[in-house]
């Protein structure tokens, strides 16, 4: 039997448990799923500021949670949707991925079409703000052959099959990568615009932090632009506060290996490379980067670890030290989940980082500085995270 478990912030019903609560500190089974969603078919779980989506193998999308701007996409507008509901307006379209900003959503269909809904207060939907201040139903953008989508706090990025990157929305920290005719940062871009400085780089995927944008090229090169307050661009923030023109993250920062995938939290980034290692950088003060290389063998108490982890950031990527094979990582705003291979036949879910709402699932609200196993009643199949909430799909044992 397959079952969905959720934990963390639930102030808008984003866990889909059927009720609203400040926090759920331990994994709790989601019992009230719609009749037309089969738990074994769930392939993807992702959350935004206070809303969540589940995507099935059949390309059907279900949403729950905060809906003040219609970001759940069920055709209504209201404070909370505490149970998962089928997203309206996507009938006949096979959705392959979905991304969430603070209060907006973006989905990609199998045909390469992009659909947006939710708040458009900063042009994050890619539509003129005066015409569409928000929408509770998905609207298709005039983009084709899209292969990757991502959402920041209030900006959006996509990559197309021809290797181009497009961004739109809020750009006050240079996260859009656009300059105006006077050489100034474009702070609001209400419609999709190609990022000129990555032309010819063959961008394959994009990932957005809170106010930072990353692009991964076909050659495994990582480009980054936007906010660098916490070293998110892998450059010293004392020298670079933010940057509009994409910077290349040095190849040797990843041990000389090609980067295969990127995941971004609000102010940190996680990269998986060809030799199986995982690298992390950016903000560190909640423990979201885990222990550094020097601390990985430290067997002292959590209190001592907390003291040692007082550093605020790491701008040079470092290996994530779990000492086991990391299969995948999901990033919340400042916390992470990972599926880790415990043995040839068993996987475990680890969590670490910000834990104010119990989003690390260890039964407490104390930040977690050392990745630790979450106690779950089955074998993990899928993990997902929102800003302060988490999900795991399990095969029960």
Which structural class best describes the helix and strand composition? mainly beta
Taking Cα atoms only, what radius of gyration do you get, to the nearest Å?
Answer: 20 Å
Low-confidence stretches: 297-301, 303-310
CATH level 4 superfamily: Regulator of chromosome condensation 1/beta-lactamase-inhibitor protein II
Largest sheet, in brief, is:
4 strands, antiparallel
Q: Record the strand order, biggest sheet.
A: 2-1-28-27
Task: Specify the number of helices.
Answer: 1
Counting structural domains, the number is 1
Mean pLDDT, rounded to whole units?
94
Strand tally? 28
The CATH class assignment is: Mainly Beta
Cα separation of the termini: 8 Å
* Oligomeric state, counting identical vs distinct chains: single chain
Q: What would you say the CATH architecture is?
A: 7 Propeller
Determine the strand fraction and express it as a percent band. over 45%
- What is the helix fraction of residues, given as a range? under 10%
Envelope shape: globular
